[in-house]
Amino acid sequence: MEADVGIVGGGVVGLSLARELGERGISATVYEARQQIGEGADRASGILSKSGLEKLGLDYGKSVVNELYGAHFHAGGRTFTVRAGETKAYVLDRISLAQSCARRAIEEGAEIRLGKKLDAAGIRALSAEHRVVVGADGAVSNVASTFGFPQAARMVLTYKAVYEGVDVADSGMVGLYFDKAITRGFFGWTAPYSGSKLEVAVGIEDRAKANSKRAFDAFIERAAGGEIGGGAARKEDAGLIPLAARARTVKGSVLLVGDAAGQVKATTGGGIIFGVGCAKVAAGAIAEHLAKGRGLGRYEVAWRRKYGTDLALHRLLHGYYSSVGQTGLSMAFAFMKSLGAERLLGSFGDMDSPSRTLKGVVFRRA
User: Fold this and answer.
1) Residue 217: CATH number of its domain
2) What does the pLDDT look like over 106-134, one tens digit per residue?
3) CB neighbours of 73 closer than 8 A, spacing ≥ 6?
4) Which of 150, 168, 160, 166 is nearest to 186 (CA)?
5) Domain containing 258: what range?
6) Are the C-beta atoms of 250 and 297 separated by less than 8 Å?
7) Do residues 265 and 120 share a domain?
8) What is the Cα–Cα distance from 247 to 15, expressed in whole angstroms?
9) Whether the Cβ atoms of residue 48 and residue 273 lie closer than 8 Å to each other
10) In the chain, how many domains are there?
11) What is the pLDDT of residue 334?
12) How high does pLDDT run on average in the chain?
């Protein structure tokens, strides 16, 4: 007997949805193209907020490789530093996290079918086998294209490498670099995994029509080379991140979640926190659909109501730093320093919820 729900994509978001459905007594089958859970997951960065992880209930403890409490923002020769007195984010082993999510999904009754790379015909066939089909298959979603969902409007091309043998000055601080000559609508970053291991990466908008590897090489030469020192690159990967949600994420008995839906922070490209949050919303909508016949369009309304404001604020912030020049960013940093924003953001900053950060700063200053 086939499961109620077929989920295409065995990443953290798809597996979390399978677990959420299992907890509601709904059977789910996860179709993963790769031969092993977590294979390729480390192509993406593993920086996730502590507060977001705690809200989602993910079993992430054994996946933590480093704790972060602040960031240095660099632009136009100026540096703006936000430093908290406690851990604000973790660097996670993405492979380990995916495997943990798989174990929990299986415990709740989900079936995971590995090596199932489905073409359009195979994806269409799922509609006959399952009452609901979910696309959790990443930014370039085959489910979305097969069922004719609107395309994601904008994407970021990324390129990253992990360097070993690095002398990291402060393993609790991330470096963010804004350089219009290199990043083209996004930024470069350095994220310590430890005192001797450092992730170095760069992102550029796809509309810039540039090569992410060349941007990465320029970033190393112009900015990040000093942090790397004599370290050696262990692994290099290219990636793709959506910058905005698709205009539609439900069509009939098919829905999209996570990167496939574009539920990603436009400021950083992070997708797990919002993706898993939306998976919880999807599980509730699917449960009502199967039990009471209510349309899955309730998912569309509910996730946008819950997360739409913060995702919109992330897009606004991205729109600002991607459009303003180097001088403008430098002046903005200087102005924020004059307001004491470094201290305030260190106390009230929320990586995922700009609305919550604004409330904290406003009420603090009132």
Assistant:
1) 3.30.9.10
2) 999 999 999 999 999 999 999 999 999 99
3) 79, 80, 81, 82, 176, 178, 333
4) 160
5) 5-46+93-152+246-319
6) yes
7) yes
8) 24
9) yes
10) 2
11) 61
12) 88
